[in-house]
Amino acid sequence: MNKQTGFTLVELVIALAIFSLIGLASYRLYEGVLATQARVSAHEQGLRSLQRALAVLERDVLQATIPKEGQAVTLGAGQLNLQRGNGRNPLDEPRSERQEIAYRLEEGTLWRYRRSLDLPEIHKLPLLKDVRALRWRLYAQKNGWRTDWPSTPGRSAGHPRALEITLSAGRFEQIRRIILLPEGA
């Protein structure tokens, strides 16, 4: 009498069922990790775009220069205008030329306009997309926070001390940034 040993059909079916449940659970877990990674990546891209836009804006504001006549920073109709100097060229040498910079919100995109005072060519750069709301305000010691600057054209209103930017873009509901202006210090 030779007795054969091995697995029965019932044991094989149970083992296959357990293996398929483990495989299905692993696939669901992997699918969840991929979905989470995609959401985190999208959030990171939005945050990087916002940080880059605010860094460019802050650099321009901190390099604002006071012209011989007029204001270094003007604000009106939702547009910020300023003159800046000390821009860096590709060789990282300081430039002596001044540039006119303007920021304007058009159809949900924050645009940066740049023009050298010596050249008529205007460079237009999309700075931040999916902007739902944008508000600019300037602070002056005598006038407080103002949404237009200067309030009376032609009259010297002094120099503003700070710029406030409040915006909603992408996944970020309300971002508020205050930048001290060099001319108002």
Automatic annotation (TrEMBL):
One of its GO terms (biological process) is protein secretion by the type II secretion system. Keywords: Cell inner membrane, Cell membrane, Membrane, Methylation, Transmembrane, Transmembrane helix. It is a single-pass membrane protein. The keyword Transit peptide does not apply. The keyword Cell division does not apply. Its main location: membrane. PANTHER family: TYPE II SECRETION SYSTEM PROTEIN J, TYPE II SECRETION SYSTEM PROTEIN J-RELATED. Belongs to the GSP J family. This is Type II secretion system protein J.
